[in-house]
Request: fold
Amino acid sequence: MAKENPYESPQASTERAPSKQLWVNVSILLFLAVGGCALDLWTKDWIFAKLGMPETNRPWVLWQGVFSLTTSLNEGALFSIGQGFALGFAVLSIIAALGIGYWLAFKGAIHERLLVIALGLIMAGIGGNLYDRLGWHGLRWHWPVERIGQPVYAVRDWLHFCLIGSDGQVLFNWPVFNLADCFLVCGAGLLFLQSLRTPPKIEAKNV
Reply:
């Protein structure tokens, strides 16, 4: 067992703990933000390389009548909201990322573990979808005729839940999504949980 340094002041030993905690939180943030974004982009590249652009190949059905892998392009936001405003959402994504950075660096969020995890996931989701909205995936439209050959400024989606009944009728059809969307939803859920946490009680001091 390591012996305590008798010449070290109690203040110095207490100052090391917050510093170590800070670096752990920074490491978690970077791991989630960078690793999550990389995983999202890799899976998009992989599925589009296998299935090509939307409607060029049949989906891969993993669970008949429930879940399949397909390719879709979303020019809107999460769950296909606001179609045709991809560049506008890209600007909003950049603003959101800057806001999160400010929250972490200057408002103390980096010291709260749950906030760090939530914001790391959100940063991963923002990064993965922002990459697509800026057209950095290099895709070009193959339809309709008037858009053939134009750069695609849209998010690549590939996960699809569609519940089909025994009579062939569609009972539930969830919009096609990707891992970045999952990270955004999970991060938002953790932020909600953080908001429900009871603040620590402050003991009354004797006057």
Notes: Residues 7-15, 200-207 have pLDDT under 50 and may be disordered.
